Amino acid sequence: MKRLFCFLALMVAIILVGCGKPDFSDAEKKTVASLALNTLPSLKPDTTNRFADVPAAAALGSTLFFDLGMSRDGTVSCSTCHKIDRQFQDDLPQAVGVGRTNRRTMPLAGVARDPWFFWDGRRDSLWAQALTPLENPLEQAGNRAAYAHYIKARFGERYERIFGPLPDFVGIPLNASPLGNDAERAAWNAMSGAQRDAVNRVFANIGKAIAAFERSIEPAQTRFDRFALDLATGAEPKGDAVFTPEEILGLKLFIGKASCVTCHNGPRFTDNGFHNTGVPPVANLPPDRGRIDAVAQVEADPFNCFGAYRDGDVSACGELRFMVKDAPELVRAYKTPSLRGAATRPPYMHAGQFSSLDEVVAHYAKAAPSVEGTTEIHPLQLSDRERAALVAFLKTLSE
Predict the structure, then answer these.
(1) Nearest-angstrom CA–CA distance, 254 and 265
(2) Where is the Cytochrome c domain (predicted)?
(3) Which of 32, 125, 213, 329 is the Cys-Cys partner for 61 at CB 3.0 to 4.6 Å?
(4) What pTM was estimated for this model as a whole?
């Protein structure tokens, strides 16, 4: 009888494990709970953009986001790379607008919570970021004077209801920008200071409208979030909230032995920092040194938090004021991307270096030296089973 009882107890234990019955320490439960989407705080106001939470601005921003007219040749919009059915990203190793860029398109879910933007953080606000592709010759390839004229011609009434009167465009050339081709730069330099300021204000408001729309894009709940909530409350997992033994092992590795949570932490699975993780360069692409070269760019940006086009006062500029400007760890350091939805948006890394999550895990396990600077990661002794388990867990972060 005793043997039969022990046998039945063993079988119950096996069944529970097979159904994904979680077995976590209190410390592990606390860490898992910190990653759940329900712990994501409310989105803070952007005091540098007083239109950030104005519905009419967001509506105009949505229109501009999908408008092919917001490019030099009428073939590219923000949504060309940030595809709504691909988590506002694309499937390419490097984004393609008017030309091919040297970086991977970043997803937009939760982007308004970032302190820095782009893989290298070369812009310090969501609205300043939104302006950059508009004039990038490889992305939308336009110029700010042309955009100002376009706004007046097509969206003048909507713009003025939100931002106030448009400036007098008499004498303002159709094409002019300090970042354009020789003719556009010459036209920009020939303009008066007041004319340049007027164009810049319209241009800044374009970015503020697009940013107001992008603030509405938030991450969606996943299997992991349902599992984490059940784990935290002690509820019996049901449906897709039941993790397999492999997924549980992957989660334990993620927050433990593999140390993934060191950088991929919080409910968005990112520390918003910049790290050199030894990701190799891509042949035939321009040299890319990451964060170290972005510092000068963000400081020089006339639309940064210290600039004349920021709303609110300078108290909002702490990130820019206290940013690390020159340190060895900035060399080939790139932003930690959110892992939410990562399983469904290969390839990976800042230039699409890896085609699968298996390759990503293999890279971190091997920890090859960086081609420049010093990598922050160290080799991991992971078995094939453990690597597969990590990938299995990462897939629970996607719907």
Answers:
(1) 10
(2) 234-398
(3) 213
(4) 0.93
